[in-house]
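Here is one chain, start to finish.
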Amino acid sequence: MRDFKSPCVLYHGTFLRRPLPLWREVLDASTLSFSTRLKWFAICFVGGIFFSILGTGLLWLPGGIKLFAVFYTFGNIAALASTCFLMGPLKQLKKMFETTRLLATVIMILCFVFTLCAALWWHKKGLAVLFCILQFLSMTWYSLSYIPYARDAVTQCCSSILS
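Its structure:
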């Protein structure tokens, strides 16, 4: 909370002598109220889903592979970024690169980049669609890491189907 009239600022229940730098306020989700964080999470998440669905619809237009790749990837990034409003960007990044999520995070980011490369620069439609499928699978695997025992359950289910 910025207060330029007084020399002190209340931060996490402690009075500080000078205002927090703006970058610190931006990176610290606790400076936003819970209802504001929840609203922006919902806006970002729903917007991300909207763009992903819109991108999927654009796939069927002539020459729509570029729009599909851009909108689908942007939608997934927006949906992923929406959680920054709940826990803050720094905490989100720390959680993304924990050992349990590291592989899924790296694959997800690579799929974002390769999807755009395949559609915009390499002009390989099949490859762009393949990377979008891999985006979906890696984001699903990443999301399951936040639910206790969900990955184990999915692994057991898939192994029982395949055997």
